[in-house]
Design goal:
With about 220 residues, this protein is of the alpha/beta class. Helix content is about 45%, strand content about 15%. The protein has one domain: Undecaprenyl pyrophosphate synthetase (3-Layer(aba) Sandwich), CATH 3.40.1180.10. Strands 3-4-2-1-5-6 form a 6-stranded parallel beta sheet, with helices on both faces. Helix 1 (about 15-20) crosses helix 2 (about 25-45), helix 2 (about 25-45) packs parallel to helix 3 (about 65-90) and helix 3 (about 65-90) runs parallel beside helix 4 (about 105-120). The mean pLDDT is about 95.
Amino acid sequence: MSEKPIHLAIIPDGNRRWAKQRLLLPWNGHEKAIENFREITEWCRTNPRISTLTVWCFSTENWNRDPEEIAKLMALLEEYIQRERPKMQEKKTRLAHSGRTDRIPGSLASLIKEVCEESQAYSDFTLHLAIDYGGKDEVLRAVRKIGDCANLTDEKLRSQLDHPELPDIDLVLRTSGEQRTSNFALWQSAYAEWIFLDKFFPDLTVSDLESALTEFNRRTRRFGA
């Protein structure tokens, strides 16, 4: 497989189960996940093999969870982006967001908009956060923007997705041992390779990412041919 930079996506599953095993509150698992996420992002940012890192932070279905847990998680995401904001400028990291912004806290939505705008000129590395995101929801929103679908093409639909300029996903890594796609990036991951790890996201290490890239490099991608 060629050594061109790839788009890596992570479904960081298992935070709550990690906390439960340790008799902690669900958001303690999210807190540990954020700490882990900082290290993983830094590794990806300095790895020439990775141009884009997508992380699914909160799905459209996650609103069914306990309101207190949701509030804690939203606060953690806002704190994370605020703390990382200077580093994104320093390291010339572009922030991008996919998903809805009308249901998340207004302060988080405003912060995302500000940081996305101030970093949009950077091209070396993109950190793409999926917050209040679902693959079906993204496609439905795209179709509604188009309106008349009589002459709909792949290119026309893609142009109305949240970030049509980003490359399609090459590799999806899902933690916690679950082996399903769960409505993630249905369009962008159509030809992605998938790797499922039997460990919770708070326990994910840089070594795991290195092993995943090694496995990805072994595979032959045929794209239906």
